[in-house]
Amino acid sequence: MVELAISDLSVNPVEFWMSRRLLLTAGVLEDFNMMPVGFGSIGMLWSKPVVQVAVRPYRHTRNYLDKSDSFTLSSFSEKYADDIEILGSLSGKELDILSKTRLTVMASESVQSPSYNEAGLVIECRKVLHQDISPEGFVDAEMLKENYPSPEEFYRVYYGEISAMRQSRD
Hints:
Layout: E1 2-3, H1 13-19, E2 21-28, E3 31-37, E4 40-45, E5 48-55, H2 60-67, E6 70-76, H3 81-89, E7 105-106, E8 115-116, E9 121-132, H4 141-147, E10 156-167
Antiparallel strand pairs: 1-10, 2-3, 2-6, 4-5, 5-10, 6-9, 7-8, 9-10
């Protein structure tokens, strides 16, 4: 992995979330959890580059996000699609789900939350804000009905200032 200047990140933001295998990880190297994420954003907040991710309340990873001061977002090639699928279909609450995959964890450079040796891109983030989505915030009633079948489904959105990025040499 080589350091990538934050100003050098050049991605199509829609393509980034729609066609990559993304893994959100929070905690510390000795105690962490991860989950695939399928949507979010990359942009600016308070003149800082940020990543935004959303997590439902029942996800085990959310406990780690709430306790952590950081998180990482790792992007994987299609080669690791089955591994990411495993991590999304099993809970890390009951077993070591990472051991069911070919992924290997590694320490991050600028945050305590770990990342992965096999990732093509790692974005390390310092958590700066979280915001709960609520029904009162929806302007589009159909979007609310389609995405939130019950009140306990509402996401918490986490904003992380990008503190470092690394890209594989491949």
